[in-house]
Write a structure and sequence with these properties.
three-stranded antiparallel β-sheet; 32% helix; six-stranded mixed β-sheet; single chain; alpha+beta
């Protein structure tokens, strides 16, 4: 927790001085205050705070244990002014030893002073346990009689100094500075001379007095009930549900926000680009008469919705960025402390992230290609012609005709199959071309398998179109 401001008041402060300080606090945005004053000035402080309207809805007041421990001594007027205040104090368990001691002490007090004794507070119980620690230390040292050293110079001495000092004090100090026992105040633990309370009680000033709303211990944190067993599960000390219902100032159960911008507070400076991209994203106009900036668009809608969702009101104003479309310069205005924030179609880049923090992207902008939809051409019969161009196909056909013509020129004089009617010669011209290509790449084999598994006869036939004979070779 960080204390943003400290206000100092003395015990002799007048009501006007207290009111002046309260007005200074009221002008600040903070609405949570911690009061650490003496009892007399503190109760007067709360009365004046109520008159100044600072004990109303939206405020939260917390008082330290010094005030909370003495709350039972406060008059009804001060209690009325402190309605809704939260306080913490050392927790004192109501043991049988404490109840019996209070009865004995009340009887003796009434017999000696002829009036009823006020209720015990924790300071009286700590004093009793401290005397018990001193007595046990003396017993452990084993001193038969106590002797005190009288001061040499008795001039201008108060009564305590006139008593003198113990001659065995150096032996008692180590035993008292580290002492632990079960006393009237509960677990009385002195560590290095400092008292260590085992638990704190959280109270809420409501009605005619205080009301317990929870406890705090080092092991369990905040809890509605005290947890004496160490084997129980710990609680999250940050959850408000771990406390009972609290009546806040203004007689409300609504938890104060703790922060409120006043009329004199500074506004959030929000930079917006005058020349942006799409008008639907952000559009900035300036009123020619008043000079005010009016911003609209999707980015502005998102920003204003976020500001409305804040737990407290944050006033802001738009400031136009009139330069060219240099968004790097726009973002850099934040690091130069000219703007507090920038709203617009600003792209997150690595170099910009070095000096500003970006929010999580709330929209995506990308390039989209729009192409016409065509039918499924794979189902067409002539799809095989797609890989080659028309000119290449015409070249192939031309070479096919040329080769067929050359074959006809060479064969029609010696081969009777290339003779006859013209249509037959044209057919044989193209057929002969295909047949010549097949003769070059084809080898025909004949295999004769005998009765035995190891007997095979392989034969290779060589056929020549322009020869009347056929030859066969055995392998």
């Amino acid at each position: 927790m960080e204390i943003s401001y400290q206000s100092v008041l003395s015990s002799s402060s007048t009501d006007d001085e207290i009111l002046k300080e309260l007005n200074s606090l009221k002008a600040m945005p903070t609405r949570v205050f911690i009061v650490d004053l003496g009892p007399e000035v503190a109760y007067r402080f709360f009365r004046i705070a109520k008159e100044a309207g600072m004990m109303s809805r939206g405020y939260a007041w917390i008082m330290v244990d010094v005030l909370t421990n003495l709350l039972h001594l406060v008059d009804s007027d001060a209690i009325e002014a402190m309605q809704g205040v939260i306080g913490v104090k050392a927790y004192v368990p109501r043991s049988n030893e404490l109840k019996n001691f209070e009865k004995r002490w009340s009887k003796r007090f009434l017999r000696e002073y002829l009036e009823d004794m006020l209720d015990f507070n924790v300071y009286g119980l700590w004093a009793y346990d401290s005397v018990t620690a001193l007595a046990e230390a003396i017993e452990r040292v084993g001193v038969p009689s106590l002797r005190f050293k009288k001061p040499v110079d008795r001039g201008n001495l108060i009564d305590l100094d006139a008593i003198g000092t113990s001659s065995i004090g150096e032996s008692l100090v180590p035993l008292i500075r580290n002492y632990t026992s079960k006393g009237l105040s509960g677990n009385f633990n002195l560590s290095n001379g400092e008292l260590q309370p085992s638990a704190f009680e959280v109270v809420n000033v409501n009605g005619r007095g205080e009301r317990t709303v929870g406890f705090w211990t080092k092991i369990y944190g905040l809890s509605k009930k005290l947890k004496p067993d160490d084997d129980e599960e710990g609680l999250d000390s940050t959850k408000k549900d771990n406390l009972g219902p609290i009546i806040w100032p203004g007689v409300t159960i609504e938890v104060p926000k703790g922060w409120e911008f006043t009329n004199g507070g500074k506004r959030l400076r929000v930079g917006v680009p005058m020349q942006g991209g799409f008008k639907e994203i952000i559009s900035v106009d300036r009123d020619p008469e008043t000079g005010g900036v009016k911003a609209t668009g999707f980015s502005i809608d998102v920003f204003e919705q976020v500001m409305r969702s804040m737990p407290y009101a944050v006033p802001f104003e738009y400031i136009s960025f009139d330069k060219s479309e240099d968004f790097d310069d726009l973002v850099k205005q934040i690091s130069l402390q000219n703007y507090d924030a920038v709203v617009g179609d600003v792209t997150v880049t690595a170099n910009r992230s070095e000096y500003v923090d970006f929010t999580i992207p709330y929209t995506e902008s990308g390039v989209v290609a729009i192409v016409p939809i065509k039918g499924n051409e794979r189902k067409k019969a002539w799809i095989f012609m797609k890989p080659l161009t028309t000119g290449l196909w015409l070249t192939i056909v031309a070479f096919f005709i040329f080769i067929g013509f050359m074959i006809w020129v060479l064969e029609h004089r010696v081969n009777e199959e290339f003779r006859g009617p013209p249509l037959q010669q044209v057919g044989m011209m193209f057929w002969g071309e295909s047949k010549q290509q097949l003769d070059k790449i084809r080898d025909d084999h004949m295999v004769v398998r005998g009765a035995g598994s190891d007997t095979e006869l392989h034969g290779k036939l060589g056929i020549h179109v322009n020869s009347a004979t056929a030859s066969a070779g055995d392998h």
